[in-house]
Write a structure and sequence with these properties.
heterodimer, A: mainly beta, 6-stranded mixed sheet, 5-stranded antiparallel sheet, 11 strands, globular, B: mainly beta
Chain lengths: 113, 114
């Protein structure tokens, strides 16, 4: 049973517009959520995280929103740029499992010129 | 600059052979992890270690082993390679107790088992 789900395998967005990537989870014990970005032939790189005690965290063009009641988080990228084309992974962790990461399957974001 | 490296980057082997993938980090992190990435599955945890002489099984540990003799290295061994182990393997490391920064990843090793 997947505890972290990214239901959109791919997403195509016009350059300059907003990209919204979604992630759902089932385990209410998760207390940290992270987004990673991955280019082909490279390892994932950390992008942004949010604690379960917050509902929003912002870092430049990237904002993550957390809706605990819906067990849903989203990553907003504004404005989208060509270099944002990558696979984005959502991951979650819990203190009682020593913050091991549970990963979603990823969403491939394509930014169109 | 601190980094995490993996070798080899690409490996082709035959069924039944023993294969070892190397992982070396200079972050001085206590925690190290091995994942495999397959289409539609995201990253799945194979083995992990929270310090020297500590190793633990992850979600998909069958057919794999690790050892941790120092802080910097966590080699992953496939005891008898199988075609189902064809995958991309990532090593990662992290600080203890800093969940908000997540894990730092190596560039990956693409393994093909024929």
């Amino acid at each position: 049973d997947q505890q972290v789900k990214q239901n959109s395998p791919s997403l195509s967005v016009q350059e300059g517009r907003i990209s919204i990537l979604n992630c759902d989870y089932t385990n209410s014990m998760f207390d940290y959520f992270l987004w990673y970005k991955k280019y082909p032939a490279e390892g994932p790189t950390f992008l942004i995280s949010i604690s379960s005690i917050k509902d929003k965290n912002e870092d430049g063009r990237f904002t993550v929103f957390l809706n605990k009641s819906a067990k849903h988080l989203s990553l907003h990228i504004v404005p989208s740029q060509p270099g944002d084309s990558a696979v984005y992974f959502c991951a979650a962790s819990a203190r009682d499992s020593n913050y091991q990461l549970i990963w979603g399957a990823g969403t491939k974001l394509i930014i169109k010129p | 600059d601190a980094e995490i490296t993996q070798s080899p980057r690409h490996k082709i082997t035959e069924t039944g052979r023993q294969v070892t993938l190397a992982c070396h980090q200079t972050w001085n992190h206590n925690n190290m992890f091995w994942y495999r990435q397959d289409l539609g599955h995201g990253l799945r945890l194979i083995h992990y270690s929270y310090g020297v002489q500590d190793t633990n099984k992850g979600e998909v540990s069958d057919g794999y082993s690790v050892s941790r003799s120092n802080t910097e290295d966590l080699p992953l061994t496939l005891e008898s390679a199988a075609s189902s182990q064809t995958s991309v393997y990532f090593c990662a490391s992290s600080d203890s107790g800093t969940p908000r920064r997540g894990q730092f990843f190596g560039p990956g090793t693409r393994l093909t088992v024929l």
